[in-house]
Each structure stands twice: as C-alpha cells, then as structure tokens.
Amino acid sequence: MRSLADMAFILVVVLDLFVLASSRLGAAIRAVALQGALLSLLALLLASSGHNMGHVLIVAGGAFAIKAVLIPWLMFRAIREMAIRREMEPLVGYVPSMILGGVGVVLAFAFSRGLPLPMPEMHTFLVPTALATVWTGLLLVVSRRKAVTQVLGFLVLENGVFVFGLLLTDFMPVMVEAGVLLDLLAAVFVMGIVMFQINREFSSLDTDAMSSLKD
Amino acid sequence: MILLIILVSFVLGGSAFAWPDNRTRPRLLLVGAAVHLAGVISLWIHPEGPVLSGYIFLDAAGKVVVSTSSVLFLASAIYAQGYLQRRADRDNRVFVGGLLILLSAMTTVGVAQHLGVLWVAIEVTTLATAPLIYFNHNARSLEAAWKYLLVSSLGIALALLGTFFLALSGAGPGGPKSLLLDDLIRAGPELSKPWVRTAFVFLLVGYGTKMGLAPLHSWKPDAYGEAPGLLGALMAGGITNFAFLSVVRVFQVMRAAGEAPFASDALLALGLLSMALAAVFMAGQRDFKRMLAYSSVEHMGILAVALGLGGSAVGGAFYHVVNNGLSKGVLFLAAGNIHRAYGSKRIDDVRGAMRRLPISGPLFLAGFLAVTGTPPFSPFWSEFIILNGAFSSGRWVVGAFFLLFLAVIFIGMGATVLHVVQGDDRGAPGQPGFKDGWLTAGPPLVLLLMVLALGLWLPRALQGLFQAAAHLVTGT
Amino acid sequence: MILRALFQIGILLLLPPLLLGVVNRVKAIVAGRRGPPLLQGYYDLAKLLRKGSVYSRTTTWVFRAGPVVGLAAVATAGTMLPVAGQPAIFSFSGDFVLFAYLLALARFATALAALDTGSSFEGMGAAREVSFASMAEPALFLCLVVLARATGSLSLSGMLGPGLAPAWSGAAPALLLSAIALFVVALAENSRIPVDDPSTHLELTMIHEVMVLDHSGPDLAFILYGASIKFFLFGALFVRLVLDLRVQGIWGAEAAFVAGLVGFAVLVGLVESFMARLRLNRVPQMLVGASVLSVFALVLLLR
After folding, report:
1. Is B116 within 8 Å of A171 when comparing Cβ atoms?
2. What is the reported pLDDT for A185?
C-alpha cells in the first residue's frame, strides 16, 4: 500500500515535469488528466481505514469524474473547435522551464523538511509533491502564451492544492473538499465560456493578442 | 435574520435569471437592496448571536463592512435603474442576477466565522463578477474579464492552500482540528509555528490579490477600467473591503499564535509598496477610470499599513473602510456618468464635465477631494488617525513615507481630475441626450453628503463600533 | 578465476557486433522484411579489414590516429565495467569518472579526426555531436551519482555489484527513474533514433555518420567496432542496473547477462522502430528532461 502511494506521488511529479516540457497540447492535456486520475487513486490509498469511507469514496469518485474525464473532454472540445495549432510558444523556453521545474522539485523537498506533518503516520512524500505541483502550475500560468495552456497551468495548480486537501479528509468537514471541486468545476466552466468567446473576438487564442490594455 | 438576508439576495438573484422582462428586471435590485438594508438595520437594533453552531456570526468587524456595503448597494441599485434604462439595448439578465448573487456572497464573507466558509464566499464573489465585467461585450472588456478571472482564480487557489495549511497547523495532537476562528484563536500558541507562518504567506498573497495590493494588483486597472461604473463602485467599495476583512481574520489568528510581528511587517511592506506604486502610475494617467483603479490600490495599501501598524491605527483602519466604500461609490458612479456623456474615458477627449454635467462633474471633483484626504471630508480623519498611530508608536519612517505618497497621489490624481472637470466642453465628443438625471446623479450625491457628514460629525455609535472592531484585532 | 577474467575480455571483444545485428534484425522484422543476418556485423568488419585505406591530401596524422584512439579508449573503458556477476578487471574508487571520460576521449578523437578533413560537412556533424554530448554527459553523471548514493560505493563494480539488489528494495522509484534516464542517455550517446538515424543517407540529417564519412578500410572497421563496443557498454550498464544477476547455476549469471544484453538490443530496436526522429532543437529538451529525472531521483534518495 505504502509503496503504491509512493509510486503515485512520484508519478505525479514526473507528469508535472512532462507538462512543462511538452509542446503538444494533446499530450499535455492527457498528462493532466492522468494526474487527476492518480489523485483520485491517492485519495483512496491515503484514507485511514474505516473512518468516513463513504465520504472518501465520494471525494475520490468526484475527483476522477471531474479531473480525469470531464475537464479533459472540455479542453479537447475547445482545441478541436478552434483548430488551435498544436504547438505552444512559451515566454520561457522549454529547457529553462524544465530546469525551473526541477529546481522547484528540489526546493519543495527542502522546504518540506521544515514543515513537519502533525500526523506522523501520513505520507512523507505528500507535502513535497503538493508544493512541487503548485510551483509547476504557477510556472505554466506565468510563462505560457496560449489561453488554453494557462488554464492547463491553473488545473495543475488545483491538483497540487487537492493533494494537500487529502491530508484533511480525516477531520475536516465536507465543505472544504466541496470547495476544491467547486473551484475546479466553476473556474473551468467559466473559463471555458470565456475561452470560446475569446476565440470569437480574436482570431486566435493567443493571449499576446490580448495586450491592448496597458498604461 | 442574518441567514435570511443572505438567502433572500441569493433567491432574488436566481429569479433574475428567470425573469422574462428586461425592462422591469432591474426592480429586483431595488427589492434586494431594500431588504438587505432593512435586515442590517434590524441587526443593529437587535444584535443576534452565533448561528449554525458558530459558523455564522456578525461581529463588530463584520458589521462595519456589511453595513457600508449595504448602503453602497442601495445607492448602486437606485443608480442601476437609471443606467439600465439607458442601456435598454442590452440584455441585463446576467447583470442583475450577478449583482444580487454578489450581494449575497459579500454578506456571507462578512458573517463567516469559519475560514472555509469565508473562502467559498470570496470565491463566489469572483465568479459572480467576472461575467459582469464583460457587460459591454467588446474586445477590451473581454480581455479585462479574462485577466480578472485568471488572476483572481490564482489568488483564490493560493488562499485555499493557505487555509489548508492553517487547518494543518491545528491538526497536531491536542490541537483544535478546526477552522473556526474562535477555536484557532483560543488554541493560538499551540498552533504549529512553521505551518502558521507559511499559511499566512499564502493567505496574504491570495486574499491580497482579491484586495488588489501590489504587486498582485495587475488585474485592477483593466477590470475597473472596462467595467461599467456601477460595477466598479461595488467592486472597489465592496469586494475589496471584504477581502480586507478576510486578511483581518487571518491576522487575528496570527496574533493569537504569537506571529504578530512577522505578519505586521509583511502588511506594512505590501501596504507601502501599494501606495508607492499607485503614486507612480497615477501620474500622467490618460484614462480616468484606470486612475480610479490605482486610487483603489492606494487605499488598500492604506488599510494594510494601518493593520500592520497595530494599536490605535487599527480603529482608523475600520473607519477608513467605511470612508473608502462610500467615496469610491461617489467616484465610480460619477465617472460612469461622465463616460456615458462623452462616450470616452480618455482625458484627451473629456473636458469641461462641470458644464456638461452640472451634478456629476462637481461630484467627481468633490469625490477626488474626499478620496485624497482633504478636510472636511471623512477620509481626512481616518487617514489622520492612522498617521497619528504611526507617529505615536515611533514609526517615523513609515509615517513619513505615508505622507509622501499621499501628497504625490494628490498631485497626480488632481491633474487628471481637473483636466476632466474644468474647461470648455464645446468640441468635446459626446452622446446626445445624456444629461444628469435623478436616478443617475442622485445616488452619488447622497453618498457624498454622507461622506461630508461623517467628516463633520462621527456618531458615538460608529465610534464605539470601530473601537470594538479594533479590539477584536489587537486585543487591547 | 582466470576463466572468468577470460570470459570477461572475450565477451567485451566478441559480443558487440552481434548486438548491433540484433538491433537491425528487430527493426527489419517490425518493418516486415527479413533483414540482414545476425552475424552481418562480423562480415562487415572482416571485409573492411581486408581493404586498403584512402587518405585525403588535406588530412594529417590526427586523421589516422582518430579511429585508433577511439577504439583503444572504448575498449579500456570496457575493462572497468563489471560484466556478468563479477567485479570488473580494473576497479578502484572513482573509476566511473574515468569511465565517462574515456568515452568522452573516444568521442573527442573522432570529432578531431572529422575536423581534420577540412570539409564543412564533417565539421557540422562534429559540432552537432559534441553539443548533444555536452547535455548527455551531465545526465550520465547524474545517473551514476544516483547509483553511488543508493549503494554507497564510488566504484562501478561496487555500484553494480552485490549492493544493488538491496538498494532496489529500499529505493525502487529512484532507481527506476535513473534507469529510464540512463536508457535515454544510451540512445543519445549511441546515435540511435530518436536522436540520430543510423541508416540515413541524407547528409544534412546525419550527426554521427557524417563524422566518419571520410574513413575507409581498417579505419572504418575500427570506428564501427568502437561504436558497437560503446553500445555494449551502455547496454551492460543498463542490464546490470535493472536485472538481478544472482542466478544459480554454473554459468547462470553469465547466461542471464547475455540474455539481458540481447533483451536490451531488442528494446532499442523496438524503440527505433516505433519512434520517429526528433527535430534537432528538441533533442536538448529530451536530454535535459533525462537530467531532471535523475535530479529528482537524487532528491528522493537524499531526503
């Protein structure tokens, strides 16, 4: 059980690095979908026995349905309808992105030493994985140009926050979990609507074209 | 009662989406605003205790912000009647529904005693306002709405992370294992220090983004610049105040955990940075709505500085919340009128507003005077109290910078405002038929008179309220 | 003992061309052809050795020395690699650094020889090869550092020796990541698809082949033979990392080792068949990705 959770955490970080390096939108979306599936698996693996099993199942099932199925489907629809060129052109090149991602992973492990988990039976990979994923998400949002990849970065960030939320499934009420899923759902829906409309206002989904507002 | 106000606004918002008639739909805003204000007044007269096992409670700090927003919303609702009448070409379904849901969410922020509920409510405010920024349906407002949504969502995600960290800090053996404010404050010193510190950083960044503190303010000029004046008033005078309240709640926990110096330093740094940035960017600003956005950044900076100074300045901060809310209302509503009358927001096109709009023009000027802290308007007094707090606690440098930035902002903003307001309006572009009406010029006028009145005489009840709110934060 | 040492040298010298033959056979089978015989490599070497060499007038002694130095360096590196279940012929603390640098020396000699011809094509190939190598080397070193950290030994024989199996049970994810990174480095260093296409005949798309365009006869034989030994070395590294060679039986470990090498060759053949060659500016990304994976593996071990 423990080693399976180990592998899942490590795979989440490897997927982060993959999304940073990927220049094909389709591959990146699939990677984020796989990450979502891994997170729902982790929700099941990390649940301490007995406790709240029904609630854990709801969270895991909901996470899978939204992160691994619904949102990737929406994104694929978006890129298909808009015939977006598959390549993305980032502000920070791919190699520097990967290096920054690697640095982020190292820093995440270093910082998490200073953040001892209050419940020692919880997994030691959890905090570094969450921090590294949040960092990757931020990097993606800041350095990529296409609106679709910025949304992808936001999803990765959400995944990182969700990993943290897993720590709280024991004693926190449903509200916070629902908040995470709500956030993800709502933000992507609205972003999706905006994205579709963005395509109708501009001829591309390039956020570079959206820099007419400045001082 | 509290729950009633929240639910009524929410239900009205939902029914606005279902209401078939475009012309009469804005009346729902009036109904919602009236019910809300009536509810708030009754809570003043008969205060209520905690509801829903302590999750919801209107304490002193919340009362300040909720009351201000209630008044501001009523003024905006009346303004909306006139505004939406003139924009009858647009479908206002989303607009009216969104505004009512915004009211409901903002009230929830004000009464939330559980940090998770607080977070969900703040998130709903973001989701409710983003489509409203796009009301003008053009490329610029789409860009503004996109930036707003992206940056705010990022901030909210980080705030959620911070909330989780805070929950974890109390998750050790014997810890409160709860996100209720009272539980966290009571368990203060036992909270795990590294977690609490990291939580504060994330929460400050997250809620600071909603406030519009520098360097997280990049969405403000675009969003406030492109949003209709009415929405700008509610955002600058409402949402930002509630975001400040969220920061106050976090600060309460920090103080209980003994991390007040660390938190105060961070707040002072961000606050002064915001004021500096506002001063720099307001000079030579060619778009008067973006100028107002920077003014909002400045005032959030003032609030942050006041909170960071602690002591007697905190009472001034809550006083400033009221003043900020009301004066931003004046400015944005008047600016909206000017924009409509000239068809442009740029000072190249707009001049002589005093002649063309005999009420809104002078209101814009008076609002500028108020918001930059000119006596006898009330912001002068709140800023004075804050400055006094700085000097009396020996923080001369902070106080000096505070004064310096205020002065630079006065000059920068004044140049733009005087250009807009003075001069001859012959030859300036314009929309025919837009004149000041009761519905569009009345509300900002009333708000200005309130700002003037509060400056001349502060009721004992309000004074007591500010002291009580400050007591919650500083414990003295 | 002597027998085992002889076996080591024998396998180092005799097996490599067969491995390349396996790779080509696999590629042919996947493409639906019959393919060249498995021993084709040996036939080619014998043919080349019998021929004479043609030297251009612009070349100097560097050109003649290149293939010799290359082969010698690679073969010497091979003596430090433990084959089968045994420690290597030469092993001392820190020998992995010498190993990596001997391989670099071989590459350097080949590149110098290419530059010596004075032709722009060879120069282009040399520049490309060396720039890719500059990114592959850190990745290789990081993999070896991960191994060193996992087993606590600074010698190749120690890293790939008896200490490895217990390390796998304790730090499996980290070792798995570094194995993947090592495989990517192996593809890059041996000029396989997706880094370079060994069967291309278009000069503008060549990287490694263009460096050796001007060699002929025994020189070319040395170069081909050296390349196959290099392939064998990386294969041996990978196989020792991944397989547990404590098989029972008289020559059990050796047989497992050879079988593992053949498996490695098959794997490379499959990868070459199913992947397309990467655009040149994407190769650095792949190599940096391998480095970052190794860094991640290292962080997992240091934690």
Report:
1. no
2. 62
Quote ipTM for the complex: 0.87
Signed CA dihedral, B466, B469, B470, B476: sign only: positive
Q: What is the DSSP letter of C277?
A: P
Distances (CA, A) of B323 to A190, A207, B181, C240: 33, 37, 27, 74
Q: How many domains does chain A have?
A: 1
**C-alpha distance from residue C196 to each of A90, B17, B359 (Å):** 26, 61, 76
What distance in Å separates the CA atoms of residue A104 and residue C167, rounded to the nearest whole number?
Answer: 26
C9 or B236, higher pLDDT: B236
Dump pLDDT digits (tens) for A170-185.
Answer: 666 454 465 566 566 6
Q: Give residue for tokens 């920061």.
A: B247
Start-to-end CA distance of chain A, whole Å, equals 56
Testing the interface with A: which of B141, B154, B222 to mutate, by most A Cβ within 10 A? B154
Residue B380 corresponds to which tokens in the numbers above? 């002068």
What letters, b where the CB count within 10 A reaches 16 and e where it falls short, cover A19-58? bbbbeebeebbbbbbbbbbbbbbbbbbbbeeeeeeeebeb
List the structure tokens of C212: 């050796």
* A8 to chain C: closest CA residue: C173
Residues 170-199 of chain B whose Cβ lies under 8 A from any Cβ of chain A:
171-173, 175, 177, 179, 192, 194-195, 198
Helix H, strand E, coil C: the string for A48-89 is CCCCCHHHHHHHHHHHHHHHHHHHHHHHHHHHHHHCCCCECC
pLDDT value of position A203? 46
What is chain C's mean pLDDT, rounded? Answer: 86
* Alpha-carbon separation of residue A182 from A55, A174, A186, B130 (angstroms): 16, 12, 6, 16
pLDDT for the residue numbered A181? 63
CA angle at residue B458 from B454 to B459, to 5 degrees? 120
Give the residue on B whose Cα is nearest the Cα of A206.
B143
- pLDDT of C179-206, one tens digit each? 999 999 999 988 888 888 777 777 677 7
Tell me how far apart the alpha carbons of residues B247 and B307 are, in angstroms, rounded to a whole number.
Answer: 9
Among A171, A172, A180, beta carbon nearest to B160 = A180
Q: How far is A192 from chain C (nearest CA, A)?
A: 31
C32-90 residue pLDDT tens: 999 899 899 899 999 999 998 888 888 889 998 999 999 999 999 988 888 766 777 78
pLDDT tens per residue, range C95-150: 889 999 999 999 999 999 989 888 888 888 888 889 889 999 999 999 999 989 88
Going by beta carbons, is chain A in contact with chain B, meaning 3 or more pairs sit under 8 Å apart?
A: yes
* B362 Cβ neighbours under 8 A, 6+ residues apart: B354, B421
Q: Does position B3 have pLDDT exceeding 90, yes or no?
A: no
Q: What residues of A are in the B interface, CB distance below 8 Å?
A: 114-119, 134, 138, 141, 147, 150, 154, 157-158, 160-161, 164-165, 167-168, 171-173, 175-176, 179-180, 182-183, 186-187, 190-191, 194, 197-198, 201-202, 207, 210, 212-213, 215
Burial label for C61, CB within 10 Å (0-12, 13-18, 19+), is: exposed
pTM, 2 dp = 0.86
Mutate to test the interface with C, among A9, A17, A88, A95 (most CBs of C within 10 A): A95
Q: What average pLDDT does the segment B277-291 reach?
A: 89
Find the domain containing A90 and state its range: 2-211
Lowest mean pLDDT among A83-97, B13-27, B65-79: A83-97
Q: The tokens of C131 are what?
A: 């720039």
Query: Does the beta-carbon distance from B164 to A168 stay under 8 Å?
Result: yes
